Amino acid sequence: MTSEFKEFAMKGSVMDLAIGVVIGGAFQKIVDSLVNDIIMPIVGLATGGVDFSNRFLALQGGPFTTLEEAKKAGVATLNYGLFINQILTFLIVAFTLFMVIKGVNRMRRNTPPAKV
């Protein structure tokens, strides 16, 4: 059983998948920073200073000026601003993956077949 597991774990596809997961995790942090630190401030400026990461709807209780206050009070909230951030993050990741796959497919088409 140990040798079977070792053979499985050392297959190229498993190693490629593991590397892809690690790189994907690192890439996710870059995209999160791009959305939260660059894109959303520009969107906020264009919309009159709206901070989307702090946009929410308190489902109970009094008025809260920040999401932190509502969470400290234990109030249930609909965090639509954070949802907008996640949608932008997804769109950036999806577009980036599309461009990478498009580039890989273009390289595969232009590669001449190997001579036997």
Automatic annotation (TrEMBL):
Share what the entry says about its subunit structure, partners included.
Homopentamer.
User: What role does it play?
Assistant: Channel that opens in response to stretch forces in the membrane lipid bilayer. May participate in the regulation of osmotic pressure changes within the cell.
GO CC terms on record? plasma membrane
The record's principal subcellular location, in a coarse class, is: membrane
Q: Which HAMAP family match?
A: MscL
One Gene Ontology term of the molecular function aspect: mechanosensitive monoatomic ion channel activity
User: Transmembrane segments in this chain: where?
Assistant: 80-101
- Family, as annotated: Belongs to the MscL family.
Please indicate which superkingdom the organism of origin belongs to. Bacteria
Membrane association type: Multi-pass membrane protein
Q: Where is the protein localized?
A: Cell membrane; Membrane
Which source organism? Gemmatimonas groenlandica
Note the Gene3D superfamilies from the entry: Large-conductance mechanosensitive channel, MscL, domain 1
According to UniProt, the name of this protein is Large-conductance mechanosensitive channel
Which keywords fit this entry according to its UniProt record?
A: Cell membrane, Ion channel, Ion transport, Membrane, Transmembrane, Transmembrane helix, Transport
